[in-house]
Amino acid sequence: QVQLVESGGGLVQSGGSLRLSCAASGGTFRSYVMGWFRQAPGKEREFVTAITWSGGTYYADSVKGRFTISRDNTKNTVYLQMRGLKPEDTAVYYCAASETGLRIKLRSYEYNYWGQGTQVTVSS
């Protein structure tokens, strides 16, 4: 059973930065496609970014140029560096792992495992 545990969320002012971490255990981390999603109050969960086992990345237009996803396969951890945060980035951020296939996955149903989420709040 794969477990994902996010950390690093918090309250930050507009324009600030945060780095989220997601530690994985119980599976073959290096072979997974890892993704970050977010869900704001009253809205559907949305794709933020994802990274393949080899480091290929893809970003939602809303975060491109501000967020950076990376992974450390020696630590079974994926990171989300967020810069230039805006109030509209406020959401619960979820880490997800897909154990099928090698390509980037954009849809939540393509991921097999999920973390519990970490709150990110950006004040204006």
Mean pLDDT: 96
Task: Give the CA-CA distance, first to last residue.
Answer: 40 Å
Secondary-structure content class: mainly beta
Helix content: under 10%
Q: How many strand elements? A: 11
Shape: globular
Report the sheet with the most strands, covering strand number, pairing sense and barrel closure: 7 strands, mixed
Question: β content, as a range?
Answer: over 45%
Count of alpha/pi helices = 0
Describe the overall structure.
It is a single chain. It is built from no helices and eleven strands. The chain has 124 residues and is mainly β. Helices cover 0% and strands 49% of the residues. The protein starts with a strand and ends with a strand. Strands 2, 4, 5, 6, 9, 10 and 11 form a seven-stranded mixed beta sheet that branches.
